[in-house]
Amino acid sequence: MTIDLEALYIDLHQHPELSFQETRTAGIAAQHLRDLGLEVEEGVGVTGVVGVLRNGEGPVVWVRADMDALPVEEQTGLSYASTAKGVDPAGTTVPVMHACGHDMHVTAMIGAVERLVAERSDWSGT
């Protein structure tokens, strides 16, 4: 299975979510991991997702990605710029954007897992 990583990145960039509110993002990540054949657990630490790819005996390697966005208004002028709003812990509605690249973190993690799945014959472990 090949995932359109550019489309995934753009989608995540357009739909940022504040910390502990990343239900959409977590759902997307979990579904992609399931589609790749991983064992998936959701709701870890509130909105976290854990995917396990077992491939025989060998080392255990952890690949992680942050998902949360910041309460910042995007002013990049990108055609896919975020116009999202969220509610912060104080109950205030704020603009939200991926100002520090967590949309790319998730995209890169999904891409890395896709590659590991595709090249299972070249490695072993978890």
Give an overview of the whole structure.
The chain starts with a helix and ends in an 8-residue tail after the last helix. A two-stranded antiparallel sheet has the order 1-2. The protein has a two-stranded antiparallel ribbon with strand order 3-4. With about 130 residues, it is α+β, with helices and mostly antiparallel strands. The mean pLDDT is about 95.
Main sheet, how many strands, which sense, barrel? 2 strands, antiparallel
Average pLDDT across residues? Answer: 97
Shape: elongated
Structural class: alpha+beta
The end-to-end distance, rounded to whole angstroms, is: 20 Å
- Overall radius of gyration: 16 Å
Order of helices and strands: HHEEEEH
Helix content: 25-40%
Q: Strand-residue fraction? A: 5-15%
| Strand element count | 4
How are the strands of the biggest sheet laid out side by side? 1-2
Count of separate DSSP helical elements: 3
Unreliable segments (pLDDT under 50, ≥5 consecutive)?
A: none
Set down the secondary structure blueprint.
Layout: H1 5-14, H2 23-35, E1 39-44, E2 48-52, E3 85-87, E4 93-95, H3 102-118
Antiparallel strand pairs: 1-2, 3-4
Task: Characterize this entry briefly.
This protein is of the alpha+beta class and 126 residues long.
